[in-house]
Amino acid sequence: MAGIVYWATAGALAALVVAVLLRALLRERTDTLADRPDMAIYKDQLAEIARDQARGTLAEDEAARLRSEIGRRVLEADRAATPRPTGPVAGLPRMAAALVALVVPGALAAYWHLGAPGYPDMALEPRLAALDAAMADRPSQEAALDGLGVVRDAALDASLQADLAGLTDPAALRDRFRNDLAAGRTQAAIRVQERLLALLGDASDSQDHANLAFALVVEAEGYVSPEAETALRDSLTRDMGNELARYLVGELFVQAGRYDKAFQFWRPIAESDGKDAPWVSSVRDRIEDVAAMAGLRYSLPETTSPGPSAEDMAAAAEMSPEDRQAMIEDMVAQLSDRLARDGGPVEDWARLITSLAVLGQMEKAQSIHDEAKTRFAGRAADLATLRDAATAAGLTP
């Protein structure tokens, strides 16, 4: 009902404004004598004649002559500027109609796309409070599983409880958790991890709690439930730098619409040097969009791979030519694998191209160059870097 009232009111106001503007544009106008400045002068002259007569400084016959002269000038001015109607400029009605036809629907379409029809006016603080309240009231793990049509196996739970009761080796439990999770036995992995945490108590570490949260998220197909949140809190209480926990907390805030908090948890991950963890690439791919949703201007800084250390260089100097060649080939292979898996800045691609050329692998260098050109298509500066690397390597740019 409120939406109908809003649109009816907005429509009525828009129609009223359009009507007023069109009336002003299209109405016919007429120039009158009262609008002309020369008529005001003649009027003042007649008034001056009357005042001179009243003071006795102007004779009646002279006054009559002056009035006659002024009347003659008025008639001549009137004939020279005959009042004529002045309508609207040619084509203006069609132009006005076209503007109305374009602007009004265009404004409605823009509001429908950018605005929030039916959404009440709300300042930032109440809006964030509403998001926090909705997050606190979100479905539990069991409710989420019900919504997904996932039914936990009660018989499996009973069997696991009996099986795990006799296990007291934390290392064995951690191995079993990893194996169950990797094999897709999520329910079993969760029960194993719960047993581990119950066994260790306060001696459990941050990663133990993060692993439980991760298993719960996998079971709920990406949803971060209140139970997973509790495990994440326990993990970060023990180690605020745990990347897996920080990644999942960021996911929680994204799901809740708190992009500002998600950005705070994800930024250190996105800007870290490590790229081995699977969640790093996910964070790097999404963090700029998350920042934009939070109203922040943020561009992900490009990371460069560290070169060999001084110790590596010293060790290489003492190697035999064969061993040194093998080490170089291994470093180039690692760089190639990383770029194929995670991508990287154009400087790393250029370095790989020239390195392959030095090793004599010209065909592979050309293939990498062609792939890099596709990846950096439309970026003139990056393409220029690739072209220079190809030229230096003796390839076809």
In a nutshell, what does this entry contain?
The chain has 397 residues and is an all-alpha fold.
Topology:
Layout lengths: L1 H25 L2 E2 L6 H19 L4 H21 L4 E2 L5 H23 L9 H13 L4 H8 L5 H11 L5 H13 L3 H15 L5 H14 L6 H13 L4 H14 L2 H12 L7 H16 L16 H8 L3 H22 L3 H13 L3 H14 L4 H14 L4
Antiparallel strand pairs: 1-2
Helix pairs in contact: 1-4, 2-3, 7-9, 8-9, 9-10, 10-11, 11-12, 12-13, 13-14, 16-17, 17-18, 17-19, 18-19
Structure, described:
It is a single chain. The chain folds into 3 domains: 2-112, no CATH class; 135-256, Serine Threonine Protein Phosphatase 5, Tetratricopeptide repeat, CATH 1.25.40; 310-393, Serine Threonine Protein Phosphatase 5, Tetratricopeptide repeat. It is 73% helix and 1% strand. The chain is built from 19 helices and 2 strands. Strands 1-2 form a two-stranded antiparallel ribbon. Helix 18 packs antiparallel against helix 19. The two termini are 64 Å apart.
